[in-house]
# Entry
Amino acid sequence: FILRDREPKGASTCRNIGAEKALGDYLIFLDSDDLLEPFCLEQRIRVMLADSNLNFAVFPFKYMNLRGEYLPNNFDNGKNPLINFLSNSSYWNIMSPIWQRSFFLEINGFNVQFARCQDIEISIRALTQQKISYMMQMHLPADTIVIPSLKKQSVQLAMDTYTSLKLLLPQTYDCLERVNKTSYMRYMKGYLNEWLKFFAHADFSAVLLSPCNDLLELFHQYKIISRFQMHLYREQITKTLFLVKAVKYIYLKLIRLV
# Structure
């Protein structure tokens, strides 16, 4: 066991400390509520030893549904993995890659400023390196199991996502600019839609109205949405907030009548 010796607290700092202190040549990150299959390490090491030029390799995983069944998750939809990460659509999870430790340290590991989206952020950064060598091993059996956790429906979760997106957009733009692919920013609209779901899960709290406007401006600034779409989103949010307040008011009136 290694004691965390620096701030900030959180998964990214702890993963980076583990990577720095690791004695081996390869890294796999395993969350506490997920599983490695018994053959996982053997399968992955075999692939990495077969090609010393690989910076990382990616393997399929299974996920556990609500009935406790393990089902395959085929995140390889035939598209460029970078586009999948940018569009928040279909991508590997944090356990899927095995990293060359030297490459992981070379790209400075996880960004500890991110409260959420840490695995998305590092994957985009890795995939936009000038010289990158990786392989997706989708023909091999799934060697990890993801046990989904229920998303907390809270204002704090929405705020953590908001602060992470404010970091993710400019950083992703810089990464894409390095490889002359800034036009790919248009794919990132999926993250705005995801945040609006968190907004809904937090019962459209008025606390989130200002962050919502900030994000709409940011997504417009990076030409992910048009000015017309930005105004349309705002109009829909304003109407929804009015309806939520109206329903709450009527509900409280009805309670008094009973």
The first helix runs from residue 11 to 21.
